[in-house]
């Protein structure tokens, strides 16, 4: 399958906007420092005329200062990664904002599963808090940030939530060699499928619109019901289910155990020798199976 072709930035923005009637603005740039940073900075601007009507979507073909989770730098090759961010107004206390990170990952995985079709949906999964995997290799990562808007606050709990996503479109082999870990890309995903449920799977504008609208609907639901309804949805896409995992804080091993899903607060549950522990933050590494141990078991 040939590489996914990307139209000029303005043309892509127009196509996405046509499918996102509920969004106030859709913009796509050839290059930007960081789509997340741009939307966060707009929300922080104090001039009354800068008050934005949201939701807003901002994408770019290249980011010079892309951001990943935990303060990491997101690096991309020009036009090999689908990168965009959405800004939403939410009315919720700061204590409820962390749950949005896994929630958004669940939604992305669900939508991508629809695109690849029922026969292959099991190959797509979500590694808590929100990495999207294909056959165990990382396909996409998300970064969720929140800020109090400088102007136009409608309540004491008004926050602007910015969700950023980077999805590898091509060059997975080069990325795997560079990062020294398995990486997947959407071109390879589509090439490996005998059939697909929807033409949107190879249509970048439709895929972006699908994901952005799914985030919007999920956030609206979360504001009404909390995270509890998403617990069962997480179980369906959970890449860590019954896996032995290491919970890390940077390079420091905090503890190990068996992953047992998430609770109603979106915390990962890990069963250890001392009992079940909640993971609120940290990196999760799946423990490799020792083939000798498996043979002797």
Automatic annotation (TrEMBL):
Highest taxon listed in the record's lineage: Bacteria
Pfam family, one: BPL_LplA_LipB
Keyword vocabulary terms for this entry: Ligase
GO cellular-component term (any): cytoplasm
Keyword flag Ligase: yes
Gene Ontology molecular function: biotin--[biotin carboxyl-carrier protein] ligase activity
Gene3D superfamilies the UniProt entry points to: 2.30.30.100, Bira Bifunctional Protein, Domain 2
Keyword Hydrolase: no
InterPro entries named among the record's database cross-references: aa-tRNA-synth_II/BPL/LPL, Biotin_CoA_COase_ligase, BPL_LPL_catalytic, Transcriptional_repressor_C
Every BPL/LPL catalytic domain range: 21-223
Protein name: Bifunctional protein BirA
Source species of the chain: Oligella urethralis
């Amino acid at each position: 399958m040939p590489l996914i072709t990307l139209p000029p930035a303005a043309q892509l923005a127009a196509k996405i906007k046509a499918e996102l009637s509920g969004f106030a603005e859709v913009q796509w740039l050839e290059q930007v420092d960081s789509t997340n940073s741009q939307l966060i900075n707009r929300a922080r601007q104090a001039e009354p005329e800068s008050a934005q009507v949201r939701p807003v979507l901002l994408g770019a073909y290249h980011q010079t200062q892309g951001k990943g989770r935990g303060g990491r730098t997101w690096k991309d090759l020009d036009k090999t990664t689908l990168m965009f961010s959405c800004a939403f107004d939410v009315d919720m206390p700061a204590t409820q904002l962390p749950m949005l990170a896994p929630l958004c990952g669940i939604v992305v995985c669900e939508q991508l599963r629809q695109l690849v079709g029922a026969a292959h949906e099991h190959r797509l999964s979500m590694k808590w808090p929100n990495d999207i995997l294909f056959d165990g290799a990382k396909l996409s990562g998300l970064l969720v940030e929140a800020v109090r808007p400088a102007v136009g606050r409608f309540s004491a709990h008004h926050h602007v939530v910015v969700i950023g996503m980077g999805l590898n479109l091509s060059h997975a082999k080069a990325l795997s060699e560079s990062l020294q870990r398995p990486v997947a890309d959407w071109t390879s995903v589509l090439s490996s499928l005998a059939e697909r449920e929807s033409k949107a799977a190879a249509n970048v504008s439709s895929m972006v619109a699908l994901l952005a609208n799914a985030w919007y609907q999920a956030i609206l639901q979360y504001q009404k019901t909390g995270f509890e309804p998403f617990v069962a949805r997480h179980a369906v896409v959970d890449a860590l289910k019954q896996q032995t995992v290491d919970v890390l804080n940077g390079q420091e091993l905090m503890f190990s155990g068996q992953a047992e899903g998430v609770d109603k607060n979106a915390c990962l549950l890990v069963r250890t020798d001392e009992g079940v522990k909640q993971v609120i933050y940290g990196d999760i590494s799946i423990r490799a199976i020792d083939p000798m141990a498996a043979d002797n078991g």
